[in-house]
Amino acid sequence: MTIPLVNSVVSWFLKKRIHQIEFFSKYPNEVQHELLFNLLQQAKNTTFGKEHDFSSIRTYEDFIARVPVISYEEMEPLIAKSRKGEQQLFWDTPIKWFAKSSGTTNAKSKFIPVSQESLDDCHYKGSKDLLCLYLNNNEDSQLFTGKGLRLGGSKELYQENGTVFGDLSAILIDNMPFWAEFSSTPSNKVSLMDNWETKLQAIVDETITENVTSLAGVPSWMLVLLNQVLETTQNKHLLEVWENLEVYFHGGVSFEPYRDQYKNLLPKNDFKYYEIYNASEGFFAIQDRNDSSELLLMLDYGIFYEFSAMDTYGTSQQKIIPLIEVCINVNYAVIITTNAGLWRYKIGDTIRFTSTNPYRIKVTGRTKHHINVFGEELMIENTDEALRIACAKTNSEIKEYTAAPIFMNGKDKGAHEWLIEFKRAPESMEYFSELLDNALKSLNSDYEAKRFNNITLNHPTLHIAKPNLFYNWLKHNSKLGGQNKIARLSNSRNFIEELLNNNQ
Predict the structure, then answer these.
(1) Which of 43, 140, 252, 356 is least enclosed, having the fewest CB within 10 Å?
(2) pLDDT given for residue 104 in this prediction
């Protein structure tokens, strides 16, 4: 079978799924309701199911009355038992794998259960649907005439008490069908190498001679790899290395701080960027249109969704609502019930809906990674966009950043302190700071109110980070590569103080 024919056949097969996507988009609440009760039925005889009397749950109201909203720390005792090989604790089928997730920066390691159902009906299904939607929108795609370059985690899998843990990407690679490796690069052997810096050059050496048609990975780490490709090949841009490259599938962190750098690496007007929203806990949403910043919430992956508005999240006034009750342009914390046995579980992400017909979202940040010390409710979505505006007006480029509050001290008012590593610094940091402040005011009315006449917040303080400050911090803390990322915003000063000390 010739390569063009293979491309046509695979594309046809993947696009068959589009009708099911259209179905849950048309009947979202019915699909979610049926899914919830299927999950309850399957887990009714587990330890968790018996403790919360799943068998007698008949309505959503019963569900919320019987099952509490929980954090990882509250579920950890059951997960610890499951990691020792005990089964039927919170899911009906065997839990063999645990995705080790350290969260952002120095957060405590988490071990997220991964069932066979969540692999097949969520993570792998999401990957196939990403291709389905992309191909449906791009009829002339030649995606399968070449290979996809995937950049996953840099950790191997580890066995313990009959169960296995490691990065989610390592679990996915280990469980992929054998034929999947034929359409991707680098090889599984290289993909699962443990040392990031050794692995980086190995990926470059193995992929520069391939016909790469797509890229997939976290923007920050993919950028490191692609710059290494150009350094090794001595080319000016990536299309001189891979002339048939047509799309970059990205997720994990906001793409906005890196967009201009990618445009420089990929100077092709019709090059496509497709965003996904996934995590160790599941695959949640996919960009379903070309040149869009909105993601379609995928409703038939074995995940039941609930939400809590961030203005009351974690307070006595907190209210948990199902999908049918959400409103557009409200920041919500995401709560999930899944086919891996997570029940009303707070994943720590925040989103806002841009549409309810169909349900489309934008990821806005993390419940623990925003700044709200002075009532300013500053989200990562705001800071990413403000930095993009400031960079565009000063012809500068950013590699990494973090920000934290300067707390009030006596009569001294508060402020925000920024540490920014530039790839290309602005000529005037004073002007850049002014642009950043004004952009934040235009994007966030709460921030604007607190900054009005310096009523609560003084002008932000900005520092330039020395080259590779963030990278070296990650390396020192054994967090290079994979899904590790920098905390953009924090309500405490712990992280920024450590970095400022290293920046001297």
Answers:
(1) 140
(2) 45
Phi and psi based region of residue 433 (left: phi greater than 0; alpha: psi -120 to 50; beta: remaining): alpha
Closest to 502 in 3D by CA, of 477, 461, 473: 473
Mean pLDDT for the stretch of residues 38-52: 97
- For residue 39, is pLDDT > 90? yes
| DSSP per-residue letters across 120-157 | IIIIHHHHHHHHHHHHHH-TT--GGGSEEEE-------
Q: Which two tokens stand for residue 48?
A: 């968790």
Task: Quickly tell me which residue has 């990278």 as its tokens.
Answer: 471
Express each pLDDT in 172-210 by its tens digit.
888 877 666 678 899 888 887 878 888 889 999 999 999
Containing structural domain, residue 390: 380-502
**Share in percent of the chain as helix, strand, coil (round to 5):** 40, 25, 35
Give the CATH number, domain containing residue 416: 3.30.300
Does 404 fall in a domain?
A: yes
Q: How far is CA 132 from CA 136, 138, 457, in A?
A: 6, 10, 47
Q: Identify whether 358 is preceded by a cis peptide bond (ω within 30 of 0).
A: yes
Q: Is residue 248 part of a domain?
A: no
Q: Report CA torsion sign: 328, 330, 333, 335.
A: negative
Domain membership of residue 253 (yes or no) is no
Average pLDDT over residues 454-462: 90
- Residue pair 499/465 in contact (Cβ under 8 Å)? The answer is yes
Determine the pLDDT at residue 392. 93
Picking from 267, 300, 271, the residue whose alpha carbon sits closest to that of residue 283 is: 300
* pLDDT over 90, % of the chain: 64
Cα 293–chain centre separation: 14
Of the pLDDT bands very low, low, confident and very high (cuts 50, 70, 90), residue 278 is: very high
Highest mean predicted confidence (pLDDT) among 55-64, 166-175, 357-366: 55-64
Identify whether 435 is part of a domain: yes
Total number of domains constituting the chain? 1
How far, in Å, CA of 236 to CA of 233, rounded? Answer: 9
